[in-house]
Amino acid sequence: MAYLNFNVIGLELLFFLIGCLLFFVKDFIKKEQAAFFLSLVTLLFALIFVFFLPFGDFTQSFRLDFFSSSMKFLMIFGGILILLLSRGYFNKYLVLNYPEYFGLLFFSLLGSFVMVSAMDLLTFYIAIELMSFPVYFLIAMGYKINKKGIEGAFKYFFLGVFSSVFFILGIAILYAYTGSFFFKDLIFVLGKKGTHWEILLGALFVIAGLSIKLSFVPFHMWAPDAYEGASLPITAFMSGIIKFSVLATLVKVMLMAFFPLRIEIGKIFLPIVLLTILGGNLMAIKQQNLVRMLAYSSIAHAGYASLGFIIADFTGYTFTVFYAFTYMIMSIGAFGLVAWLESCDKRLVEIPNLGILGKKNGLVSFLILLFMFSLAGIPPTAGFVAKFYLLLGLVKAGSWLIAVLVLLFSVIGAYPYIRVVKCVYMDKALEKVELRPFKWEFWLPIGLCSVLILLMGIYPQPFASFFYKTMFLYLSFFYFGS
Questions:
Q1: Cβ neighbours, 10 Å, residue 59
Q2: Which of 198, 190, 196, 193 is nearest to 169 (CA)?
Q3: What would the DSSP string read from start to end of 390-449?
Q4: How confident is the model at residue 458 (pLDDT cuts 50, 70, 90)?
Q5: For labelling, which of 38, 64, 314, 381 has a CA lying 20 to 30 Å from the CA of 21?
């Protein structure tokens, strides 16, 4: 029997209370930066606090364990990076500096935390909505500096509606056949009765709902519009933390609920994943705007991360989570650089105008090269290691042809990143632009991402081992624990 152990949900309670407080902080403290510093102190405290929370259940629908604690730690770390980028971005765009901005970030993170701890499909669905709804408002807040903000928010909301429809339909089918929402009951029924097309259909609808959140083909159309319409720290939040949390939770659902269906789901997933990789890479090639290029790039990288579902074993799922974290770091760093460029001059967001950087700012030019190389999968960067692990997993699983296709798509997908580097170092400056100082609010989060990219690229073993052991401990406690 599961008791109401409130210690287990200490982190969620903290984020709920601080999120509410941030909506009213301006009524008590008149200083403009009060909301930022309250948010930063809370996240730094949470980064340590998460490891002092006891493992256990809060009812049967919520469980705090080593896996969920580790994923929350990584999301909090990403949240700190987003917060610092927001501070630097607001120095240029003061009209966005609302306490509500930080409050909505906290509520979205709260939804992500509940999602990775959910132990049934209904809690999972509620958590996804709690994570998504603040993001719709955060995108729309970009309207003050970008007229595409409202349009992007509406399109992202419309995709969210489709996601909810698929997800609820999948839950209904699964409940009708199994009589339960809980992951443990679903896997028990599958183990007892074997694979049935009704359960497979329900699982596919649930996964289709999550695929929309990940912008898989053919649900990718409006994601770049949402990315372009949002303020750039929120774009980094969507492409990095949101996708990381969804992929980590999808891995958990596959292991805890649908593991007997992993082969069938992998076969159905295969063409979607390959089309997502190819489509994202091809559409990124023709983009002139750096934000839209990285938006299409995020579609392709969601496809790369999902190759673990094709491998369909413990190692493949581990590599999926590892790749998702790697992309979170690359994405936050890359969009952080774009945020600094836009704060200097909006014309610098256009790729042909980047020639001025190679002549005026060697540090930023090198950082752009580093992130572009990592996104392209060029050694010695984290992006190369993450892709290599997934390709190795495909080869070990006997999927040689798929590995060759993914490698070919990666070569095609490297072009837009190499083009950016070429424009930075080889093109003439098309515009005379004054570059702003690269202040600590930018160099600290971008610098941390850069160090991690190099460390994971040069010495990946501790990072890969961390994810592997996290997954191993989680499965051990789930299947053999009390």
A1: 16
A2: 198
A3: HHHHHHHTT-HHHHHHHHHHHHHHHHHHHHHHHHHHHSPPSS--PPPP--HHHHHHHHHH
A4: very high
A5: 64
Q: What is the DSSP letter of 351?
A: G
Cα–Cα distance between 330 and 328 in angstroms, integer? Answer: 6
Q: Which residues contact 71 (CB under 8 A, 6 or more apart)?
A: 116, 245, 248, 321
Q: Is the pLDDT of residue 482 over 50?
A: no
C-alpha of 322 from chain center: 12
Burial of 51 (C-beta count, 10 Å sphere; 0-12/13-18/19+): exposed
Q: Quick one: tokens of 221?
A: 């159309």
Q: Quick one: DSSP state of residue 147?
A: T
For residues 179 and 241, the answer to whether their CB atoms sit within 8 Å is no
Nearest of 135, 164, 131 to residue 152 by alpha carbon: 135
Q: What gap in Å lies between CA 379 and CA 370, rounded to an integer?
A: 10
Whole-prediction pTM: 0.93
Q: Please give the span between the terminal C-alpha atoms of the chain, in angstroms, as a whole number.
A: 11
Contact between 227 and 298 (Cβ < 8 Å): yes
Amino acid at 111: G
CA angle 348, 351, 354 (to 5 degrees): 55
240: Cβ–Cβ under 8 A, 6 or more apart, which residues? 78, 82, 327, 328, 329, 331, 332, 335
pLDDT, tens digit, 9 for 90 and up, residues 11-24: 999 999 999 998 88
Q: Which residue has the tokens 């191993």?
A: 472
Report the run of H or E that residue 17 belongs to, with start and end. Answer: helix 10-22
Contact 335, 232 (CB under 8 A): yes
C-alpha span between 311 and 265 (Å, rounded): 11
Contact 187, 252 (CB under 8 A): no
DSSP state of 376: H
